[in-house]
Amino acid sequence: xxxxxxxxxxxxxxxxxxxxxxxxYTATGYPSLFWYVQYPGEGLQLLLKATKxxxxxxxxxxxxxxxxxxxxxxxEKGSVQVSDSAVYFCALMGGYQKVTFGIGTKLQVIP
Amino acid sequence: DADVTQTxxxxxxxxGKRIMLECSxxxxxxxxxxYRQDPGLGLRLIYYSFDVKDINKGEISDGYSVSRQAQAxxxxxxxxAIPNQTALYFCATRGDxxxxxxxxxxxxxxxx
Lengths: 111, 112
Hints:
Chain A is mostly beta strands.
């Protein structure tokens, strides 16, 4: 079946550092890929998505590129802020629009 | 008002009690979902519904039931709560196609 792999963390960075959160997937066919963010005490919010190979999703300074050859969708941001502290979930939508989530990566940004 | 509203936000209940978690949405979508979040396990799908007459089990439906009272309302019931059902529960909705979910703020359930 489909699966999404990401590290649980926590990832701890200083403010203004560069962020990369790795996400790799296994799926048949050509899934769509998503990143969601969960701030403390809240539900998940869609951050960005990409629906085909080489697409780049971007939002709020975050970006991720759909790499079919490496089955990856790594999340990046050039300069993180304390307000980016949250849990980040990678997800894929495969056949029959079934969605599979990763376990979530906790990001802590310290001033 | 929030697009997806869950009630209650927090609930403590005793083992063996029946409890209902409610969800309503204003997005006008047909598809609604219930997920459970546990540390180290991410989100797991409990039940989903593609319309009022179409309800399907997810990967962890045992011990749960659902009711789709209207397009906008989808409730989750624990018939006889047990401690390992202590978790954060999320309701979500989305449109048909390659769209992301809109989630509610969650219900934190503790079974003692």
